[in-house]
Design goal:
The chain is of the alpha+beta class and about 60 residues long. Strands 1-2-3-4 form a 4-stranded antiparallel sheet.
């Protein structure tokens, strides 16, 4: 079964066509950028990343 990609609600907020998407495939989450290849990370790592973003620990890029 192919991965189902979900686009971030924050993507393309300036009309610049930047896009971040995530797909959950079994025990891993796959993250991809419109300009780069997909990277696979473990779901626990993804959850920790999301929590750090919510706490504002990563700042703005």
């Amino acid at each position: 079964m192919p991965a189902v990609w979900r686009k971030s609600s924050r993507s393309n907020n300036g009309g610049n066509a930047d896009c971040v998407e995530v797909a959950f495939t079994g025990p891993t989450a796959r993250v991809r950028d419109s300009k780069n290849h997909a990277t696979t990370i473990a779901v626990p790592g993804w959850a920790a990343f999301v929590e750090a973003v919510k706490r504002g620990e990563l700042g703005q890029v």
